[in-house]
Write a structure and sequence with these properties.
By secondary structure, this protein is an alpha/beta fold. The chain has 2 domains: 2-220, P-loop containing nucleotide triphosphate hydrolases (Rossmann fold, 3-Layer(aba) Sandwich); 257-354, no CATH class. It is built from 14 helices and 12 strands. Strand 9 (222-227) and strand 10 (230-236) form a beta hairpin. Helix 4 crosses helix 5 (123-136) and helix 5 (123-136) packs across helix 7 (155-167). The longest helix has 18 residues, at 185-202. It is elongated and about 75 Å long.
Length: 363
């Protein structure tokens, strides 16, 4: 059952330098009990998009719709939105230390959240629930640690405390905005396992925002790859990892270090993401794309079906038969490029090939 349906969401911010088009017509759905992974480089619009759903982008010019459990979130006033935030939709932010007030005890902050949404809960009951939540997320000796300040927790423990706050009111949807970026690999794995376990227990939907394809592989059911404020590709996890169609998705996969091939060179994506104030013409990825064709310079592709089921969609002019990482798919890509490339696009491809990072880097 669809819990959240976002259609043609656009978010822009007027600035002295021009209009920042942070989100440019993104659509997606999230079903109850499933996890949507949203992946892309910094500046692709991931965080702005999800913060807009909760009214956390003041000053933004917003259009589109975001229907959550039958209610369009974008039409809610501040008082109505306050009833949704925390109670029905919770957020786990990237840095737990700045997400918590440094002058208040951890248990008090969890209790305050509970009592803000349920006035019938006494301070004692809220404290007991806070201890239970800390125990549930694996904090040792929660009866004692509930009275600690955030700086007395380690990074992993602070993130667990934030997860406890997110679960306090049994929300239907949790938005996790790069919750493991600041943690070491071991703690990151523990946090991901914890999120999966809690999701299975409560059938909560989860949106996982990350730039780490490894995290997506561990936790997501469906994946949306974002670039320059739009969805470049959207599909089930298996299709994204084994049959990617968009060159940007393929580039993200090829840039992942392989522990079994320590001497091999990585294949980084050349260049930098574009300015969201001055976007290039045509396909926004074409200045960095090794498969750039003439059409890419002037026409921006929309999402179109790649597979037979219609769920796997990609915004790229390459033929649908070019999906995948096989030699056959690569031959189709090369053949298409040879037929569709002239002097202008050839020059861009040569500049990409001549970039120092195109040679890769040794791990």
């Amino acid at each position: 059952m669809t819990l959240l349906e976002v259609k043609d969401l656009k978010v822009s911010f007027p600035t002295a330098d021009g209009v920042v088009r942070a989100v440019r017509g993104v659509s997606f759905t999230v079903d109850a009990g499933r996890t949507l992974g949203i992946v892309g480089e910094s500046g692709s619009g991931k965080s702005v998009m999800t913060q807009t759903l909760l009214g956390l982008t003041p000053g933004g010019e917003i259009s589109g719709s975001a229907v959550f459990d039958g209610v369009d979130l974008l039409t809610l006033g501040e008082d109505e939105m306050r009833k949704v935030r925390g109670a029905q939709i919770s957020v786990i932010f990237q840095d737990p230390l700045t997400s918590m007030h440094p002058l208040y005890r951890v248990g008090w902050q969890i209790s305050e959240l509970i009592r803000a949404h349920d006035k019938s809960v006494s301070k004692r009951e809220a404290r007991e629930r806070s201890i239970d939540l800390l125990r549930r997320v694996g904090i040792p000796r929660p009866e004692t640690r509930v009275d600690d300040y955030p700086h007395q927790f380690s990074g992993g423990m602070r993130q667990r405390a934030i997860i406890a706050m997110a679960l306090a009111l049994s929300p239907k949807l949790i938005i996790a905005d790069e919750p493991t970026t600041a943690l070491d690999a071991t703690v990151q794995a523990q946090i991901l396992d914890l999120l999966l376990e809690l999701q299975r227990e409560s059938d909560t939907a989860l949106i996982m925002i990350t730039h780490d394809m490894g995290v997506v592989a561990d936790i997501a059911d469906d994946v949306m790859v974002m670039y320059a404020g739009r969805a470049a590709e959207r599909a089930g996890k298996d299709d994204i990892f084994y049959a990617p169609h968009h060159p940007y998705t393929k580039g993200l996969l090829e840039s992942i270090p392989n522990s079994s091939a320590g001497g091999d060179r990585l294949k980084p994506i050349t260049g930098q993401p574009p300015s969201l104030i001055r976007l290039p013409s045509g396909c926004k990825f074409h200045p960095r794309c090794g498969y750039v064709m003439d059409r890419c310079l002037s026409e921006e592709p929309t999402l179109r079906p790649v597979g037979d089921d219609g769920y796997h969609v990609s915004a790229c002019w390459l033929p649908t038969a070019a999906a995948g990482l096989s030699e056959q798919a690569e031959e189709i890509r090369k053949k298409t490029v040879r037929a569709e490339r002239s002097e202008a696009s050839e020059q861009i491809a040569e500049e990409i090939a001549a970039a120092p990072e195109s040679e890769g880097s040794v791990i």
